[in-house]
Design a protein that fits this description.
By secondary structure, the chain is α/β, with parallel strands linked by helices. It has eight helices and six strands. The longest helix is centred in the N-terminal third of the chain and has 22 residues.
């Protein structure tokens, strides 16, 4: 019996293009100015960690922006990049420049599951801060009240590591066999299964990740209930 559903965002609840064009584009546009204006404040940790990871201890903010932008284009899940993106996009959401975009079937499904008493969570490579804003400032209206907690690469760990799913199960105090994970990425589904979770793959038309056995796949959240 499923007690909790954990959803991915990119390619699962929301179009990949929405995340990469909107969030990534906004981050790249505002990154140099944010670093320069916050070098002695909010960006201090981002700068220090980027210097360490890039092995460039004297890199100035211009160079840091170049490094982070290259990671952004390569979709490298680096902690300082996610931290910078979280802070920059938070401003964009609050200014009305950014909104969470969702597939049409997602909001009604989340509302139905919530009404049925299922506990809903999000696990995405985007920072928790961006995740919360994505659901709060959603185009269909505020969806944040449906989600009990969020997990990212810092709070849970890499999405292809079974230990990350162990951490989430422990934090939400739910036996793994009672957790259902919805993701568009086969490797993430493999890791969740290795941790004892139930999984359903979500294969949206036009999205980049292919469906792969042995997982069961659906093209819409409306079909998930039949597999639970």
């Amino acid at each position: 019996m499923i007690r909790a559903i954990v959803v991915d965002i990119e390619g699962t609840t929301s179009p990949t293009d929405a995340v990469r064009t909107d969030l990534y584009g906004y981050t790249e546009q505002h990154l140099p100015q944010w670093l320069a204006e916050n070098a002695d404040g909010a960006a201090q940790s981002v700068i220090a960690t980027t210097r360490e990871l890039a092995e460039e201890p004297t890199a100035d903010t211009v160079r840091i922006a170049e490094i982070l932008t290259s990671w952004l284009h390569s979709d490298i899940k680096a902690e300082p990049l996610k931290a910078a993106q979280g802070a920059i996009c938070a401003q964009g959401f609050r200014a009305g420049a950014l909104h969470g975009r969702f597939f049409e079937d997602v909001p009604p499904a989340l509302k139905t599951w919530h009404t049925q008493g299922l506990h809903l969570y999000v696990y995405s490579s985007g920072s928790e801060r961006n995740q919360r804003d994505w659901f709060t400032y959603a185009e269909p209206g505020d969806l944040s009240g449906l989600i009990e907690d969020h997990f990212d690469l810092v709070t849970a760990g890499p999405k292809r590591d079974p230990k990350s799913y162990d951490r989430i199960a422990e934090r939400i105090a739910t036996p793994p066999e009672h957790i259902l994970f919805l993701s568009d990425h086969p490797d993430e589904l493999d890791a969740a299964v290795a941790a004892g979770w139930q999984v359903v793959g979500v294969r949206r038309p036009g999205e980049p990740n292919p469906a792969r056995p042995p997982h069961h796949w659906v093209s819409t959240f409306a079909d998930v209930e039949m597999t639970v």
